[in-house]
Specification:
alpha+beta
Length: 267
């Protein structure tokens, strides 16, 4: 369980999607320069756990609705038929940037955009424009971001003190690390990402082991799974595993709190 395995998993998915994407383009008569396939979010970072959704963005230059519909069905049906979970968006460049301006989740996902197939320049342009927009509009975006965090904490609790924590959504979890990474891209904000590197590695490995041992894509570490996950990761017992998870969560929460203190001083 580690970075190399997650990267190899992402690379394998890339190869599969590249073939499906170009086959679908050819089938419906779309030129490869008029469309692009991009990975965003965790898939864009190459952090696919065994049960992770595939977060993809299909960019196009303004192709007609019927042809697009035919293309999407041709491209995604082989994935859907094998029960692969795909979270996809279909947009032009301007539609993508407009969505990012309105939806904080879209904005964060685009900060990790990566070209997979098709028009590479289109993806690179969207990535650069999304980053510039994030930096330009960050003061407007901060209240929405803070509100989304507070709502998530209210819903999922504090990872370090939960008996059955959600490794991704709870306070101090993987979602908070992604937020810190996004904030670090704003020049005015200092984020000590090095202080959460070990915590991120631990939490990602635990999530990988959870997906593997449960055979499901859940992120909540239930009592019934803790012994299995501890065994996969070669901990002495589940208590030692949970101590490590709590320690990692506290490290993330500490850096998050310090970062938001800095933000309040410059806002």
């Amino acid at each position: 369980m580690g970075t190399r395995e997650r990267r190899e998993r992402s690379d394998s998915i890339d190869r599969e999607l590249i073939t499906l994407f170009h086959d679908a383009l050819s089938r419906v008569g779309i030129e490869s320069m008029d469309a692009a396939l991009a990975a965003v979010g965790g898939y864009g970072r190459g952090e696919l756990s065994p049960g992770s959704d595939l977060d993809i963005l299909i960019l196009h230059t303004g192709i007609g609705e019927e042809q697009l519909k035919e293309f999407v069905n041709a491209f995604l049906y082989p994935l859907w038929s094998t029960n692969r979970k795909v979270d996809y968006s279909l947009r032009t460049k301007s539609e993508t940037l407009s969505a990012a301006s309105e939806d904080i989740k879209v904005a964060l996902g685009l900060l990790d955009i990566r070209s997979v197939a098709g028009n590479v320049e289109m993806v690179e342009e969207v990535g650069q424009d999304a980053l510039e927009q994030w930096r330009k509009e960050f003061k407007k975006s901060l209240p929405k971001l803070r509100s989304s965090l507070d709502e998530r904490y209210e819903r999922s609790g504090e990872l370090a003190y939960l008996l059955e924590p959600d490794l991704k959504e709870a306070r101090g979890g993987l979602r908070d690390i992604n937020v810190l990474r996004a904030l670090s891209k704003i020049d005015e904000i200092e984020v000590a990402l090095d202080r959460v590197a070990a915590a991120e590695s631990t939490l990602l490995s635990v999530r990988d082991a959870l997906h593997q041992s449960s055979g499901r894509d859940r992120d909540q570490l239930l009592f019934t799974e803790q012994d299995k996950v501890a065994s996969v990761l070669e901990y002495g017992d589940a208590d030692l595993l949970m101590m490590d998870v709590a320690r990692s969560a506290r490290a993330v929460d500490y850096v998050s709190a310090r970062t938001w203190d800095r933000i309040e001083r410059i806002s």
